[in-house]
Amino acid sequence: MQVPSPSAREAASMYGTAVAVFLVLLVAVLQGLAPPESPLPYRIPLDPKGDLELSWDVSYTQKTIYFQLLVQELKAGVLFGMSDRGELENADLVVLWTDGDNAYFGDAWSDQRGQIHLDSQQDYQLLRAQRTPKGLCLLFKRPFGTCDPKDYFIEDGTVHLVYGVLEEPFGSLEAINTSGLQKGLQRVQLLKPKISIPALPEDRRTMDIQAHNVLIPSKTTYWCHLTKLPQDFPRHHIVMYEPIITKGNEALVHHIEIFQCTNQFQNITSFSGSCDSKEKPQELKVCRHVLAAWALGARAFYYPEEAGLAFGGSNSSRFLLLEIHYHNPTNIRGRYDNSGIRLHYTAKLRHFNAGIMELGLVYTPVMAIPPKESAFVLTGYCTAKCTQAALPPLGIRIFASQLHTHLTGTKVVTMLVRDGQEIEIVNRDDHYSPNFQEIRMLKKTVYVYPGDVLITSCTYNTEDKNEATVGGLGTQEEMCVNYIHYYPQTQLELCKSHIDPCFLQKYFHLVNRSNLGEYCTCPQASGTTCPQASGTTCPRASVPEQFASVPWNSFSRVVLKALYDFIPVTVHCNKSSAVRFPGKWDLQPLPEIISKLKEPTPRCPTSQDQSSSSLTVVNIGGGKV
Amino acid sequence: MQVPSPSAREAASMYGTAVAVFLVLLVAVLQGLAPPESPLPYRIPLDPKGDLELSWDVSYTQKTIYFQLLVQELKAGVLFGMSDRGELENADLVVLWTDGDNAYFGDAWSDQRGQIHLDSQQDYQLLRAQRTPKGLCLLFKRPFGTCDPKDYFIEDGTVHLVYGVLEEPFGSLEAINTSGLQKGLQRVQLLKPKISIPALPEDRRTMDIQAHNVLIPSKTTYWCHLTKLPQDFPRHHIVMYEPIITKGNEALVHHIEIFQCTNQFQNITSFSGSCDSKEKPQELKVCRHVLAAWALGARAFYYPEEAGLAFGGSNSSRFLLLEIHYHNPTNIRGRYDNSGIRLHYTAKLRHFNAGIMELGLVYTPVMAIPPKESAFVLTGYCTAKCTQAALPPLGIRIFASQLHTHLTGTKVVTMLVRDGQEIEIVNRDDHYSPNFQEIRMLKKTVYVYPGDVLITSCTYNTEDKNEATVGGLGTQEEMCVNYIHYYPQTQLELCKSHIDPCFLQKYFHLVNRSNLGEYCTCPQASGTTCPQASGTTCPRASVPEQFASVPWNSFSRVVLKALYDFIPVTVHCNKSSAVRFPGKWDLQPLPEIISKLKEPTPRCPTSQDQSSSSLTVVNIGGGKV
Question: What is the pTM of this model?
């Protein structure tokens, strides 16, 4: 931390006082705006030190969010807002700033170069400004959608919150530029579902899966900690889990997951260290089954009253892997951590076992994204034939979902389709980030019946890539997965697809000009054998090699898109990753969509609503109070 | 012709009188609108009987057309206007109608069901209404573009004029529907070029190539008449030609062409009859070189002062084929015709020979249009390499152009590209009709230099087809040609292209699912041999057969489009249809376009201009005069 010189410190303090005084005066004028009951239920630190703390609540009836921003050490002001991917440029902002005399609060936006402009329409509405022992506390609200084209539309899924600290006064709002500011971002699901909390069983016990005195590394780290269930721990149902965050480390613990290992190893060498460490035992690779997951801003995860997640018992591994993502961009040192997750479980098994099913794309290089694409879509299908074969007659109920891609994913959506009609969105995140993967409770349970189709589409940005990004397990490869949490548990563990690899060979043949004289119909990756021209001997290039040799031009891009949108798929309708349900699963036609779901149009506040905004009081523009 | 009963005739006459009286009164009020000098220079009959006659003139400075509509037997009114393809529905109309008491003149439009609506903006402006011995004569004007979204934008190329006759009064404009009306269409180039007429040589002689007492068939017919030049007729230059239309047949003679035959036959059996007749001599097939062409609405065609079209002499055939298209939809009988074309020629050869060059697509099935496409584009390239090889250092000057497709063509455009930049449009018709092919003088001579590129694109509508339409010579096959008229004549007779047939084979392989196990790289059409997988034996299907077996779906359509937009081409850079300029002409990359020509935006009249419109006088809406 850089310590400001005494005079700067003094000046900043003076401005801070000016801001506070001005705002207190101002709030006296605000009438008839009942703030929600405090404290607001959701809370996150915005910056790594925790100097800026945001609390919020959601009113679905008013379609409005109430924000409370606590600024612990106010200097000359603060920017707070939202942007598409977390930049402070092209952002929708509230700005609290001073010109040295007065302080102002306004709804603004930043352009591509970081210059701040006042919104023509003021949609952030200040409700209260208060000095508290902890710092300046601002209460304000904003509708989800404002109809101001410069405003961010707050929707389900991830929201990239951004902030910037103003260290000195500015003569005008337009004089502020985001470059050079101390700034940062925090990802959060703002629109938390309002679901009633199920009653917990009386016999409930807890088990804390947590790190032990980890010295938080001075850079961003995934920490792996192997733990195990007690000897002969019988089968239980997890009914709830919640985070345990070591006090003071709230801004450093980014997300936590608990993975159950498969029981292929009787014993696994104990380990606690960086997940990237060379000393990490190889056996830990089998610990991939998500048991619990928490991320910043999430609260306790409750299973529905009639279901629980089985753990323990003789058929499952005793070993659990705790993975903690420490996010430490400012290299804070000397912090010890014991964070983890507290599992609440019951011995009285609930009526249903909850299950986790994997939807989306098979991990195969035949699904690939060309380089330099800003929004390339890949789609995986869980077909009617598979749900017909695998789901119980009364269907299943999806109550939560965790979306997953690797580094280039920007959007994920799963759509439920019945009789060719899009019925509802299972889960959708138009601002998905691979750095923020949480298990999200659905706002509404989704019922899926035999014969239904689940279509999962992922959008990727490969603008900074020079080669194709192929599907696969590696970090530099891509995935498109939605882990749905549902009950009653079925044998169907994964329902995914990839395009027919033989058609992909024809694609390579068409677009690879150097191939003019060659022809090969022998894809390597998937073990499938395509019919082959008799007598042809082929150079046996792998699919990633073939993708690497595609000349990426408008033709090869358009045709690959068309291929993925049209070509028959191979469906993995599997009991486990290796065992398929009986049936023919290759060359399956893509599900036909007869009718699309309408995109909800944001309801704009009427002009009457807008005129009730009291922003005129907030003397924006430089007049003295 | 149906004769109206006495009472109806009487009523119609009464309304006619009412219309005239009202309009005469009305015109007295119109001030300061100087009509152009009469008679207007361009004239066509609108209906087969010639009861409606349109004259017009173009003011390029005012960007306005002056129309004069002569209605010989006015009943209760008339609709006149323009539409995209000649329908009276979705048309931009002026309506003259009576409700029995008063008569009205208004700018209107017809919707998809033929219902008439008043335009919110009145852009047709009445200048004069006059009873003359020939009938009611209406003079009105309209800007090319009006900025009324319901109005037709008058641009270069073909305009489909439409008309409808109102036989009885209507209570209101909205009560009029186009269904049931006597109606029709006439295609015309409204925006005639204003070019100064070159002086004709003093030794000029004329030769009339005309039909001899042809009894016009009672249905639409192409009439073929073989004629020949005098024995030992030496080489001359045609400097001008003009139509000779038999008086009274103006509405029946649709267009006329004179073709020169090749001199491969010493003699050709004389013939005069329907071009479809089985008795037509086979030798007439060699008469394909256009010497002169006229179509309805066109006037005399003048060669530039320094050039003439050579004909006669020992190296060319003596035989000329006159083809007259009689358009007789109402089966008028008993008319004899001697129409034709009068050639004006000189023995004093001008400085330059004029030439005709063929641009566009090679006649080959590898260029095809899928069925059910509303606007599929095929493009032919005359590449820089070819113009470099074939054009003289000082280049050529294009002064006229004739666009040509077969039945599904709807648009044709040729663009001149230099150093990757679109320079200018050579010729363009966004309302092209295969039923209206004229040689059009260009408004401005286009200079083409070695290294320039000429790109000709044709748009096709195959919505009524069930199979692909392949390129070729047959009527049911398609072409994309621009015959450019230029000087000085060069050896380059055709500069056209088609996509590489080997890539097309890869396309078939990709999209023909039934082909899954087969692979064939042996296209038949062009004589090219593609590299072939060793040892493969292929079923030798022809390209049209292969197109016929393509399953037309979004995939095969998108990929074919992408293929045509991207794949290297084979260029025909030919001295005659068989002899190529030396060089490698296959697998040529498509010309790159770095900068596009800006679409001209129609300049809208300012609101002041609109307010000077005197339409308020035209008591529309039913008030009494």
Answer: 0.78
